[in-house]
Amino acid sequence: MKLKKLYSRKGIIITIVIMAVLTLVSIGLSPLVKINYDMREYLKDESKTKQAIIKLEEEFGNSSMIQMMTSNIDLVEASNIVSEINEMPMVKSVIWLGTVADINIPIDAIDESVVNVSDFYKDGKLLYTIEFMEDDYSLEVGKTIDKINDLMLSKEVEVSYRGPAVNNKTTRELVDSEMIMILAVAIPLAVLILFLASSSWLEPIVVLINLAVAIVINLGTNFLMPSVSYITMSIASILQLAMSLDYSLFIVHRYYEERDKGFDKIAAAVNSTKASFRSVTASAATTVVGFLALLLMRYQIGADIGLSLVKAIVISYLVTIFLLPVLLILLDKPLLKYKHKMFLPKFGSIVKVLHKGRYIIVIFFIILGASAFYLQSKTTYIYGDTPSDDMKLKLAQDRHKIKEAFGGFEPVVILYDKEDKTNVISLVTELEKLEQVSNIQSIVTSVDPSIPEEMIPKEALAQFKGINYYRMILFLNVDSETEKTYELSNQIFDLTDQYLEHPSYIAGGVVATTEIKETVKSDGIWVQLISAVAIALVILIVLRNPITPVILVLLIEVSIWINIAITFISGNVIIYIGFLVVTSLQLGATIDYAVLISSRYQEFRKTLDKKEAMIEAVKLSAPAIITSAAVLASSGFVVSIVSQLTVVHSIGLLIGRGALLSGVIVLFLLPPLLLAADFLIEKTNIKFKKIKTNKEGQHEKINE
Predict the structure, then answer these.
(1) What would the pLDDT profile of 525-571 be if each residue is shown by its tens digit?
(2) Of these four, 80, 276, 278, 436, which has the most CB atoms within 10 Å of its CB?
(3) What's the CA gap between 327 and 207, in Å, rounded?
(4) What is the DSSP letter of 694?
(5) Share of the chain above pLDDT 70, in %
(6) Same domain, yes or no: 301 and 331
(7) What would the DSSP string read from start to end of 539-558?
């Protein structure tokens, strides 16, 4: 379809109607999108963790556990509370002191050789392990936890909770509230930046209408996916706004140039769309390729994030190409009427200084890149879904209180064959020697092994005996994910293999995290390598030069290395999945800045010498780069400041810092690098022969 037809009165009406319908349908579908909070879902079916979860469900049903601690209540009141909790439909059982001992006798009189009282009672505090009939991520389990809390409040009992189900419930609540808060802060900030960087008071409104339509359509089309991870939902909308802002700016700024040349609004829209098409397509393609590389990960959270963000970018690209020129035509009169002087500084004169010191800057760039590469290689990563340690959250406060009284609660479940009942006593003895094992709940630890099973209360026995397997629960006293944690996981596997004769299964956050680490660490190298090569190929096709892609990709890679190196220097750690997302984003999205300068330089180099060509390229590209980098950086920092979710906070900080680094490096290091390599670039430009008909009707071959 010819652009003039698209921008005719009929074409404009059709475009507006289609976009309006898509937007309204998407608004209706958005609440129906399924959000997934279970990171284990992204493990392959053959993983040990997934197999253990399946076997655990077969033996004991779908279940989850939390721990609850009460202070300063007597055993009679505690027994009444347990009875009320047991009556709740979603509660499978409550294990507490009254489950394994006679609470009619004084606690001091309970025989410690039969029951380990300290597992359930310490210094006036009682610990209950509540098991539910659905998994840690169940909405019904979350509602039941609320009911339990309401019960405790009605009885004015001081209570604390911990466990994966509590973590997940808090995560859901934070995602719901933080998404609104992030957009409420980030959008006004983006508007302010757009006003400062615009050439017309109406320009930010035009750009934001275009972006809002794209974001709403993307949210609605998430309904077509089986589920979307909470990580993706937390960052997708704000990243879509920040990453695809470039496309709007490229076209809007070109539109002004065409109008300044004297073209009418239809011709200006046609010319600006055609002139920007290559840059906008290259920008979208590099970002898409960067995220498509995440699909190669065996840990499928990469595919979840990658597909969602690829979809977001493609939608933004299509909406910008079709809707934005229409908005410019419709709002042309007020857009030009309210034009004003741009508040951003001119960068053309800086190029003169950079040109003089270009060879020194090249040497500096090599030293900087090598130093950053070395330092980033020293960074420490964590691989699990770490709960927030923000002490402003009741979640963190409760976890700290219970840990002080009863030690850690990182449950690991071992399923062992009935035939190994005797061997398990030796296994427990060895497991108890491990420093980080704070408590073990099993038949042989809760009740004297010499007591026949027939004499054990059925309620207590059901907690540990399944159809073909017994269940042992280890509670690990671990604060954070470290090399010692991975070593502990491997020790548990080794001891189980050593003492049990029959196949066993092990499930839990620690072992899942260790398996995730082993999976994603090998994935990461390939993701980054393939992403860089694929993006370089896209740039090669767009710019038709083999030298430029190498310079551009290396430049952004250095900015990524600096970003990660700063984390190492500051003594912090990085969540690895966040690292992969951010490196893909920073490479795929911020390379747009470098592509814009390079394409404009290539355009001006046809008629100007290299110095003047670069001055013009930077002068016209800088406003879009500064605006885009500022919006992306501010969006990242807003996510980091607002979010109390560890992984989301980490991603936000890296995005914000990465956008700033990429913007500065592209503006100050790319021009001298291109100027220094100008001779090679000019010699290696790939030219295509194109047939053109002259005025006399003769065919001529021209280089393009």
Answers:
(1) 777 888 888 888 888 888 888 999 999 999 989 999 999 999 899 88
(2) 276
(3) 9
(4) -
(5) 93
(6) yes
(7) HHHHH--SHHHHHHHHHHHH
- Domain of 297 in residue numbering reads as 1-32+198-343
Q: What is the pLDDT of residue 699?
A: 46
- For 71, other C-beta atoms within 10 Å of its C-beta total 14
Q: Is 114 exposed, middle or buried (0-12, 13-18, 19+ CB in 10 A)?
A: middle
Q: Which helix (H) or strand (E) holds 691?
A: strand 689-693
Angle among Cα 562, 564, 565 to the nearest 5 degrees reads 60
Q: What is the DSSP letter of 346?
A: P
Torsion of the alpha carbons at 607, 609, 611 and 615, rounded to the nearest 10: -10
Query: 3-state SS string over 421-452?
Result: CCHHHHHHHHHHCCCCEEEEECHHHHCCCCCC
pLDDT tens for residues 194-231? 888 778 888 888 888 998 999 999 999 988 888 888 77
Q: What is the CATH number of the domain that holds 98?
A: 3.30.70.100
Residue 109 DSSP class: G
C-alpha to C-alpha distance for 668 and 62, rounded to whole angstroms:
57
- My answer on whether 426 and 531 are in the same domain is no
Quick one: 486 and 547 in the same domain?
A: no
Q: Is 19 a residue whose pLDDT tops 90?
A: yes
Burial label, 425 (beta-carbon count in 10 A; 0-12, 13-18, 19+): middle
Do 503 and 412 lie in one domain? The reply is yes
Give the separation between CA 134 and CA 155, rounded to whole angstroms: 26
Question: C-alpha angle with apex 430: 426 to 434, nearest 5 degrees?
Answer: 160
Distance CA 193, CA 226 (A): 36
Say yes or no: 362 and 422 in one domain: no
Residue 559 counted as domain residue: yes
The pTM (predicted TM-score) of the whole model is 0.75
Higher pLDDT, 385 or 63: 63
Convert the pLDDT of each residue in 368-405 to its tens digit.
Answer: 999 999 999 888 888 766 665 666 778 888 888 988 88
